[in-house]
Amino acid sequence: MANSKELKVSAIENGTVIDHIPSENLFKVITILGLDKISTQITFGANLDSKKQGRKAIIKVSEVFFQDHEINKISLVAPHARLNVIKNFEVVEKSDVTIPDTIVGIVKCFNPKCVTNNEAVTTHFSVINKKEVALRCHYCEKITTQEELRFEAS
Amino acid sequence: MPQMKNRSLVSINDFSKEEILHILDLAEEFEANPNQKLLEGKVVGSLFFEPSTRTRLSFETAINRLGGRVVGFSDSASSSATKGESLKDTIQMVSRYADLIVMRHPLEGSARYASEQSLVPVINAGDGANQHPTQTMLDLYSIRKTQGKLDDLNIFLVGDLKYGRTVHSLLMALSDFNPTFHFVSPEELRMPREYKLFLEEHGIPYYEHGELSEIIDEADIIYMTRVQKERFSDPMEYERVKNAYVLKRNMLKGTKDNMRVLHPLPRVNEIHTDVDASPKAYYFDQARNGVFARMALIAAVMGLK
């Protein structure tokens, strides 16, 4: 039997479980993945006990399977997230998110004078440090750090 | 020979060392023979969304000496940006009129964005506090001309090192030439961390100083900058620091014979006018070099040389 913590959010037959999301970023993950706009069943829980993180959030999405490039979009808000692919109530694949080399959209440039904050331009960054996130803006060339991360409203 | 035809020139970081040296060689050719009608029959769109006397006139002189024609505006008040037209639309339109775009714009990153929207090459004539690659090219040209080389020089950057884009670009461009940097600035206007980090990563020595004093005796180049009023959100802050770093003739006494004083201009009072008559004052010749450097860059992207 699955452990009792897992069952606080009901099991799914087929789909994806995204585990180890920082509780405070649960809704950001939902927005970034566009889960607020899909029609299949989603259950989620926040402020669950976690040995690793203290408090974590978990999302279970039925009938949705993510490509790596899609799921890596959440790496900035949930760097330790783990994906479990479920088929027939069984975990058939586990993977961790990784921070990609470039990030398009999602994040805002911290520089108020950057063209991306003043014209309708999609942001575009090179990731220059994956440990302590540092993103160089393709346009203004300024570096946005972990503390300065802000996300675009979708 | 590096292939630069049809390429936009947005950031000095886009140039390889070989490309920089190629442009400097071309500039030297144009200095020796400044009137060459290579641009005859071509139209250059000169889009200055913020005013700039020197850069604009220098570009227009370069285009005229090459025999090209200029259309454009010298301030956003006389452009359709005042009607709310987006930068994208302006560029889409002008790039269907002209063979080349020269643009200055107050937003940082606007030149990269314009180059992505344009059908013709874009030369960045300054995008806010970000990049001003043609200024950097003329600075490099001036350094090489006065020192006979770009390698192994002691470069002193003085004044507004926080907001001064010219010093940032110059720093990046010289990084391939084994320099030693000295930064002289008030506490509030120190070199930003990303540039110091860059130097550390590349093993380039730099020293920070709070005062302009006898340390300049070691300099090959003293690059002075204006503490710009428009970069300050607090005018009191500007008043407090504006007179802190003024170079005077008597300070040049112990400096090396080959040392030259550079300044991107306009100068306000950071170089006393008594320095102007010194053979070590080079800033007006530096401005003149801007015409040759810009001729070289235009010729390179238009595939004329």
UniProtKB/TrEMBL annotation, chain A:
Keywords: Metal-binding, Pyrimidine biosynthesis, Transferase, Zinc. Its cofactor is Zn(2+). InterPro entries: Asp_carbamoyltransf_reg_N, Asp_carbamoylTrfase_reg, Asp_carbamoyltrfase_reg_C, Asp_carbatrfase_reg_C_sf, Asp_carbatrfase_reg_N_sf. One of its GO terms (cellular component) is aspartate carbamoyltransferase complex. One of its GO terms (molecular function) is metal ion binding. The keyword Cell cycle does not apply. One of its GO terms (biological process) is pyrimidine nucleotide biosynthetic process. Contains catalytic and regulatory chains. HAMAP family: Asp_carb_tr_reg. Involved in allosteric regulation of aspartate carbamoyltransferase. This is Aspartate carbamoyltransferase regulatory chain. The lineage of its organism: Bacteria, Pseudomonadati, Bacteroidota, Bacteroidia, Marinilabiliales.
Automatic annotation (TrEMBL), chain B:
The keyword Transferase applies. It is an enzyme of class 2 (transferase). GO terms for biological process: 'de novo' pyrimidine nucleobase biosynthetic process; 'de novo' UMP biosynthetic process; amino acid metabolic process. Residues 7-144 form the Aspartate/ornithine carbamoyltransferase carbamoyl-P binding domain. InterPro entries: Asp/Orn_carbamoyltranf_P-bd, Asp/Orn_carbamoylTrfase, Asp/Orn_carbamoylTrfase_sf, Asp_carbamoyltransf, Asp_carbamoyltransf_Asp/Orn-bd. Residues 152-300 form the Aspartate/ornithine carbamoyltransferase Asp/Orn-binding domain. It catalyses: carbamoyl phosphate + L-aspartate = N-carbamoyl-L-aspartate + phosphate + H(+). PANTHER family: ASPARTATE CARBAMOYLTRANSFERASE, ORNITHINE CARBAMOYLTRANSFERASE, MITOCHONDRIAL. Belongs to the aspartate/ornithine carbamoyltransferase superfamily. ATCase family. This is Aspartate carbamoyltransferase. It comes from Marinilabilia salmonicolor. The lineage of its organism: Bacteria, Pseudomonadati, Bacteroidota, Bacteroidia, Marinilabiliales. The gene is pyrB.
